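Interim report to the steering committee. The following record documents the input for 3-isopropylmalate dehydrogenase (353 residues).
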Amino acid sequence: RDSHDIRLAVIPGDGIGSEVVAEGLKVLEVLGLKVETTTYALGAAHYHATGETLPDETLAELRGYDAILLGAVGHPSVPPGVLERELLLKLRFELDHYVNLRPVKLFPGVETPLGKARPEDIDMVVVREGTEGPYAGAGGVMRRGTSQEIATQESLNTAFGVERVVRYAFDKAMTRPRRKLTLVHKTNVLTYAGDLWARIVERVSAEYPEITTDYCHVDAASMFFVTDPQRFDVIVTDNLFGDILTDLGAAVAGGIGLAASGNVNPAAPGSASWAPSMFEPVHGSAPDIAGQEKADPTAAILSVAMMLDHLGLADESARIEQAVAVDLVERQVDWVSRTTREIGDDITARVAG
Ligand code: NAI
Ligand code: MG
């Protein structure tokens, strides 16, 4: 089979999810690649219509694609936790997306709440652990609804799980000019888990003498995201810390409309532990603006670029990033309000050349 063929599963999802994914696919189409897409209706609307979140047969089919592109799922009418646990987290766990990759990069011309920050000051990648920590679903509740209620939510950290994501982060740091890795945790209070993370980072760092290794508590890191973002290059961190920190990252780098992410299974294609990785904008389904053509599709388009990079199509990925960079400069200089579709059309035209 042609190595440049991509068999892609698309989960447009709810609200603006399907609106922004349509623009991402438009960009993908003009790259001259042979792409075969199959759309899967999953999410809040599908749940209301069928009672299904992620049927086993669908999960089994999804395993057969090269990659998955997701818009966003969710609606206030679905009880909290249902789609998160039974669809999103299930996909991450079942497909072993142990790396949640979230670049935090300020493009030239983009406004940041950090008034004086320049693009070279905000250019990092957060490698968030994706399958363990407080998100593992370990815990329980007793005497619910009474004044004696007890709820526990444990953080699970395995030596295997921590080491593999730490190794990925070191390898990622090797591909970047600054070659710096910062572990973000809370080792002074979360002493058991923190000790495991710190020891593994220290042990693995011996194999990467070219990398400068640093440590930062998560509370201090939150402050430095705002006051001194230059200090970060690659960050490796726990599932929960990474979730929170990357929303802050999205905010300082120009907002949720620009933040892309990958749920990555880094195993070699063909190996037993391989499964398709899933790329998605960080934002949700935004019911407040859904159906109004107000959503910025840039995060979804940049997620497509991340996907191509993951699939070994670095040139095509760079073409998209370049086109987005130009578009972002022009939106500041000559700002007119464009619809979701118009932004997608403009970026597509630039990619097409
Ligand atoms: P949200 O990200 O959907 O929206 C937060 C705010 O940002 C809203 O004011 C929205 O209008 C704005 N916004 C988001 N994306 C935008 C874009 N591309 N362009 C312009 N403005 C944008 O987060 P919220 O409101 O907390 O969640 C809404 C629903 O999405 C919930 O059901 C939630 O569970 C779900 N969700 C799903 C995610 C996923 O599928 N991975 C991730 C986050 C939330
Ligand atoms: Mg989040």
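The pocket of NAI (ligand 1) is lined by residues 16, 20, 72-75, 88, 256-257, 280, 283-289, 295-296, 299 (CB under 6 Å). The committee is asked to note this result when reviewing the revised timeline.
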